[in-house]
Design brief:
The chain has 76 residues and is of the alpha+beta class. Helices cover 16% and strands 33% of the residues.
């Protein structure tokens, strides 16, 4: 399955990181929670500035399922 990526939502001020991949890679993923919802942020570490994209917001349970599928290679 393929995830749909969007520009980051600017209206969220408090975000809590639940899980993340190693920042030693060219692409870093983070599972984030804000306002009772969760989403995945993808950062492509490019020069001169990184490119940041985010997924749709889900319930925390659904976001964890998507996160595991992403890590297992079932989603991209």
């Amino acid at each position: 399955m393929k995830l749909v990526w969007h520009e980051p939502f600017e209206g969220v001020t408090r975000v809590r990181a639940l899980a993340w991949t190693c920042d030693c890679r060219a692409v870093v993923y983070e599972l984030l929670q804000a306002g009772g919802r969760a989403f995945i942020r993808k950062t492509i570490q490019a020069e001169p500035t990184p490119k940041v994209e985010e997924t749709h917001r889900w319930s925390i349970e659904e976001a964890r399922r998507v996160w595991l599928a992403l890590l297992c290679g079932e989603m991209r």
